[in-house]
Specification:
The chain is α+β, with helices and mostly antiparallel strands. The protein is about 35% helix and about 20% strand. Helix 1 runs antiparallel to helix 2, helix 2 packs antiparallel against helix 3 and helix 9 crosses helix 10. The longest helix is centred in the N-terminal third of the chain and has 20 residues. The radius of gyration is 18 Å and the shape is globular.
Length: about 300
């Protein structure tokens, strides 16, 4: 069985001069996951290790360095899923945790539930031994102050103008991080983590913590999505990829078809990564950028800004 792993750092438009930081951050994260798989480890361990490194890297919108909501604090969402027994765990609305992806894994492993949210998720994280951690960085705080001071320019007089603004300035929306892998036993796993969208309403939850939308693992495919979460939710994008593969499509064709359909239906600014049980990684996006990195088998890690 061919081992493979692919990870993304968020679809959108990255600020000029940040390309190298993003691609090198992805390369290092995938190398961490690769070491686990090459040593005979599980796909679940590999994707979690990869996402933890991205959560700890403040240039990505997940964990430390996540974007701030309208009231000026972080609300963090994450999901992990393993094809074995369709095991899944998720959290949303976490505020002061360093690695929400690990809290999501604990939900999967230590409870009878799939998802915990808000205060309940926070209490669970503390019971599981995750200490208090402030994920707000000075750079994200400065960005929040700037946008709050230009609220009319950013949001317009009506909320309906937000979509036009995001289309013109996709770098504003932030991104999501995620990873998908297959291990030597043929088990697939995916992990996704995000801070959401800058100036989002308090309590807003996107696609990332929902299995079948922003994150999914079946016996055929593991996948993670990034971009405008509301459209990914409506499309159940990662589940749709798996369904197409189950029906006989190649992984590349399945990802392209789902992405194309989202473009037709919503003109959505999204990106998708996936890996199949035979060890084929795929990355596609409808945005200018989507930093991602991957490897398959004994091949070298490839890291790039665009598919």
């Amino acid at each position: 069985m061919t081992i493979a792993l692919i990870a993304h750092g968020g679809a959108g438009r990255w600020r000029p001069g940040s390309d190298d930081d993003a691609t090198e951050g992805l390369r290092a994260a995938v190398e961490a996951g690769r070491a686990i798989l090459a040593g005979g480890g599980r796909a679940l361990d590999a994707v979690c290790a990869t996402v933890v490194m991205l959560e700890d890297n403040p240039i990505f919108n997940a964990g430390t360095g996540a974007v701030l909501n309208f009231d000026g604090f972080c609300e963090l969402d994450a999901c992990v899923m393993e094809s074995r027994e369709a095991r899944v765990g998720a959290v949303c609305g976490l505020q002061r945790v360093r690695n929400p992806v690990l809290v999501a894994r604990k939900v999967m492993e230590e409870t009878d539930h799939v998802m915990l949210t808000g205060d309940g998720a926070q209490r669970f994280a503390r019971v599981m031994g995750f200490p208090d951690h402030d994920p707000v960085t000075p750079e994200r705080r400065a960005d929040w102050f700037d946008k709050r001071n230009r609220i009319d320019d950013v949001l317009g007089e009506h909320a309906l103008k937000m979509r036009r603004f995001l289309k013109d300035h996709p770098e504003y929306a932030g991104g999501t991080v995620g990873a998908a892998a297959v291990d030597g036993q043929g088990v697939l796993a995916a992990a996704t983590s995000t801070g959401g969208v800058t100036l989002k309403m308090v309590g807003r939850v996107g696609d990332s913590p929902f299995p079948g939308a922003g994150n999914y693992a079946s016996p055929h495919v593991a996948a993670s999505a990034t971009g405008t979460g509301e459209f990914v939710l409506r499309s159940l994008a990662t589940r749709a990829i798996s369904e197409r593969v189950e029906q006989g499509a190649s992984l590349a064709d399945a990802v392209a078809a789902v992405l194309g359909r989202m473009g037709e239906d919503f003109d959505a600014d999204v990106g998708l990564i996936a890996v199949g049980r035979l060890g084929t990684p795929v990355a596609l996006h409808r945005t200018k950028d989507m930093p991602h990195a991957f490897f398959s088998g004994a091949g070298a890690v490839v890291s790039r800004m665009r598919a």
